[in-house]
């Protein structure tokens, strides 16, 4: 895996750890700028930002179940990542997550930006203005009794929410039945509609039991349009409000 931190005077200790989705977008933007071809791939619990980067560049895009055993199967894979700090930047060399090659690509990108008088943070800002601010977070609940997880999943299946964070649920998918693009998995996916009045373009929630720990994991994303660099602070504030409300409302709906 590969973790990246950037200088940030507002963060404790003066550094901010980037989320896996942020690093994933940075690497994708760098590869696209270098003329990459093929398919960009990520998982259903990662940010939807990669799909926009791929579409804008005219590249293929694939969305898979969690884990590189699925990402690595994407046809024509050029680059794949998942939000848990895993990146496959050279599928011809290592068709799996590889922190060493990912760190080299990030270092290459940081050096190129510095030579141009810019930083990784500057590039993240540019990506947000170009594609919308895609803010992600996670609600993770560790339990002693696994029946709590089963109960929460059953509750959400029996009584799917119709609204979260003040946004209407436009689609509720039970992934245990599979989809046209995904094999069956124990998970639920909610897509939420936004609009000018809400200041949010869209939001998404994926709920699933952890495959390795006694946890219920809820992956949250809010997409906020950004008119210009001057609007970034307001967009981040609004995204933070939506993510906090999603956590609150989802916890209530799941009874956790």
Describe the fold and architecture.
With 256 residues, this protein is of the alpha+beta class. The protein has 2 domains: 5-130, Alpha-D-Glucose-1,6-Bisphosphate, Chain A, domain 3; 133-254, TATA-Binding Protein (2-Layer Sandwich). The chain has 7 helices and 12 strands. The chain has helices at residues 20-33, 49-57, 68-71, 99-115, 120-131, 147-158, 232-254, and strands at residues 5-7, 15-17, 39-43, 60-64, 77-82, 86-88, 133-142, 163-164, 167-174, 188-195, 200-209, 215-224. Helix 1 (20-33) packs across helix 4 and helix 1 (20-33) packs across helix 5 (120-131). The protein is globular, with a radius of gyration of 18 Å. It starts with a strand and ends with a helix.
Considering the chains and any ligands shown, give keywords for the structure.
single chain; 256 residues; alpha+beta; Alpha-D-Glucose-1,6-Bisphosphate, Chain A, domain 3; TATA-Binding Protein; 2 domains; 36% helix; globular
How are the strands of the largest sheet arranged? 7-12-11-10-9-8
Shape, principal axes of CA atoms: globular
State the major sheet. 6 strands, antiparallel
How many strand segments? 12
Structural class: alpha+beta
Instruction: Note the total helix count.
Output: 7
Q: What proportion of the residues form beta strands (DSSP E)?
A: 25-35%
Q: What integer value in Å does the Rg equal?
A: 18 Å
For the record, what is the CATH homologous superfamily label of the largest domain?
Answer: Alpha-D-Glucose-1,6-Bisphosphate, subunit A, domain 3
The assembly state of the depicted protein chains is single chain
- How much is the average pLDDT? 96
* CATH architecture descriptor of the largest domain: 3-Layer(aba) Sandwich
- CATH fold annotation of the largest domain: Alpha-D-Glucose-1,6-Bisphosphate, Chain A, domain 3
């Amino acid at each position: 895996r590969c973790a990246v931190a950037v200088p940030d005077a507002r963060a404790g200790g003066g550094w901010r750890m980037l989320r896996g989705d942020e690093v994933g977008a940075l690497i994708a933007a760098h590869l696209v700028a270098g003329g990459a071809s093929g398919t960009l791939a990520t998982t259903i619990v990662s940010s939807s930002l990669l799909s926009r980067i791929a579409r804008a560049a005219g590249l293929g895009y694939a969305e898979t179940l969690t884990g590189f055993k699925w990402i690595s199967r994407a046809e024509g894979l050029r680059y794949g990542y998942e939000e848990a700090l895993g990146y496959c930047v050279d599928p011809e060399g290592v068709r799996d997550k590889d922190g060493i090659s990912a760190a080299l690509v990030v270092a290459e990108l940081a050096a190129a930006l510095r030579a141009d008088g810019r930083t990784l943070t500057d590039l993240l800002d540019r990506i947000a203005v170009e594609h919308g601010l895609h803010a992600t977070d996670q609600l993770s609940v560790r339990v002693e009794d696994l029946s709590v997880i089963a109960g929460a999943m059953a509750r959400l299946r029996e009584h799917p929410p119709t609204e979260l964070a003040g946004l209407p649920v436009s689609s509720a998918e039970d992934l245990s039945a599979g989809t046209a693009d995904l094999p069956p998995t124990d998970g639920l996916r909610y897509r939420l509609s936004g609009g000018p009045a809400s200041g949010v373009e869209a939001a998404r929630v994926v709920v699933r039991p952890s495959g390795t720990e006694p946890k219920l994991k809820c992956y949250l994303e809010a997409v906020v349009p950004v008119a210009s660099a001057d609007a970034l602070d307001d967009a981040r504030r609004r995204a933070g409000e939506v993510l906090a409300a999603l956590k609150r409302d989802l916890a209530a709906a799941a009874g956790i």
